[in-house]
Design brief:
- The chain has 426 residues and is an alpha/beta fold.
- It is built from 14 helices and twelve strands.
- The strands form four sheets. A four-stranded mixed sheet has the order 1-9-8-5. A three-stranded parallel sheet has the order 3-2-4, with helices on one face. It has a three-stranded antiparallel sheet with strand order 10-11-12.
- The longest helix is centred in the last third of the chain and has 31 residues.
- 48% of the residues are buried.
- The structure holds pyridoxal-5'-phosphate.
- The site of pyridoxal-5'-phosphate (PLP) has 14 residues, from helix 4 and helix 5.
Length: 426
């Protein structure tokens, strides 16, 4: 199925002037001092989470137990998968998935360089190597045509493909599942940004062999730190569960609740310590109940940006999709229409007390991957180009209309003030 994405749209024409009620072109010292900072991200947690934590604190069982099992069952039912395994982070979940897929040293895993450290470092944990594939210009997601071409050229040793739904925008899952099926290589979806999102009739995270979600503090639902790995494959789920807790065949809750209340366990592998506590799971259960409502608020905030920035000719707005988690709102600056670059643009936002960030500096230019694999920056030209242009604006459910307007006004003011002389109105 074609990916129903509206591609990035260049802004058109000259900017309108001030937005009514906005700061206008210059924040001014007084205006700046009077204004509360707008953070880049902010978790939405409330009374429900507070009460849930207190219940666990009073229950006598703090670590992985009944509440975590409840969270896993609720999550599995929600995304429609056979198994869900709560983990201490998405990084842990991705690592468990690759371990369960039996990666070996010198195997390869196809993924994008345009991602966070975790996506590729887990490949290195296993001794395998990431095979980076460039991204699409507009979606910033891995380019499935390039994945296919790379596999046609050199299929040997590739044991998994990890697509990342950047910012919550679905990758071209139809094309990627077709490539996965053609070459018999499992997909492990990195859904750290992409919950809850359906694409092609099913939740992201359930299109491939394993899907992994992050509940890190700035994610679309959070447990502070945490994650969830989902799969329909019982054998993979069983292996991940054992490896989540030291390679022990019966977790302490399973032992505690077994009919014989036996202390006995066996270590069947050298595993990890990747379990999620009941305290975190209690937060997760409440966040899961709010997931759709939180997404609606993020979507509303993103739509305000899309409307408010529509006329800006110095940036490209993010591609949109009927289903989008809106974890991030990434605009791309047009270098020929500004006298400043990405970093100065972010500094100018900071001077107006507005948090912004970069997603991402591609991994192949980071010292570790650059030096270990000898990549020249131009090896992934699209990732490189877009990384130099990308600015992530503040986006979270509680971003008020007023603060959205402030961000829009600031972006416009900076763009206007930094317009090259030959593009200024006479
Ligand atoms: C794309 C991506 N993958 C994986 C992770 C790792 O998530 P966690 O912090 O839960 O380990 C992140 C975290 O930000 C991420 O952005």
């Amino acid at each position: 199925m074609a990916n129903p994405i509206n591609r990035r749209r260049p802004g058109r024409g000259r900017l309108p002037g001030r937005i009514p009620g906005s700061a206008g072109h210059s924040p001014g010292a007084a205006g700046r001092a009077a204004r509360a900072p707008i953070p880049f991200a902010r978790p939405s947690v409330g009374r429900e989470e507070e009460r849930a934590i207190v219940r666990v604190l009073r229950s006598g069982w703090l670590t992985t137990g009944r509440v975590t099992a409840e969270f896993e069952a609720a999550f599995a039912a929600y995304v429609g998968t056979g198994h869900a395994l709560a983990v201490s982070s998405a990084t842990a979940g991705l690592h468990l998935a690759l371990e369960a897929l039996k990666l070996e040293p010198d195997d390869e895993v196809i993924t994008t360089p345009y991602t966070f450290a975790a996506t590729a470092e887990v490949v290195r944990y296993t001794g395998a190597h990431p095979r980076f594939i460039d991204i699409e210009e507009d979606t910033l997601n891995i380019d499935p045509a390039l994945v296919e071409r790379s596999l046609e050229r050199k299929p040997a040793r590739v044991k998994a493909i990890i697509p990342v739904h950047i910012g919550g925008l679905p990758c071209a899952m139809g094309a990627l599942t077709a490539v996965s099926a053609r070459f018999g290589i499992p997909l492990v979806e990195d859904c750290a940004h992409a919950f809850p999102v359906r694409a092609g009739g099913r939740h992201l995270g359930t299109h491939g062999k394993v899907g992994v979600y992050s509940f890190y503090a700035n994610k679309t639902i959070t447990t502070g730190e945490g994650g969830m790995a989902v799969t329909d494959d019982g054998a993979l789920a069983a292996r991940m569960k054992v490896m989540r807790t030291h390679g022990i065949d019966r977790e302490s809750w399973d032992r505690y609740t077994s009919p014989d209340n036996s202390w006995q366990y066996r270590i069947v592998a050298a595993g990890f310590k990747y379990n999620l506590t009941d305290i975190a799971s209690a937060i997760g259960i409440e966040q899961l109940k709010k997931a759709e409502a939180l997404k609606a608020l993020r979507t509303r905030a993103a739509e305000r940006y899309l409307r408010g920035l529509a006329g800006c000719d110095f940036l490209e707005l993010p591609a949109v999709h009927p289903e989008h988690a809106w974890h991030l709102f990434i605009v791309l600056l047009k270098p020929d229409r500004l006298t400043i670059g990405r970093d100065e643009f972010i500094s100018e936002l900071a001077a107006r007390s507005i948090g912004a960030s970069v997603h991402y500096t591609p991994l192949h230019v980071m010292p570790y991957y650059r030096d270990a694999y000898g990549y020249p920056p131009e090896d992934f030209p699209v990732a490189l180009k877009q990384s130099l242009a990308c600015v992530s604006l503040p986006l979270y459910p509680d971003l008020s209309e007023e603060d959205s307007e402030r961000v829009i006004a600031a972006v416009k003011a900076i763009g206007e003030a930094r317009r090259p002389p030959h593009l200024r109105a006479p």
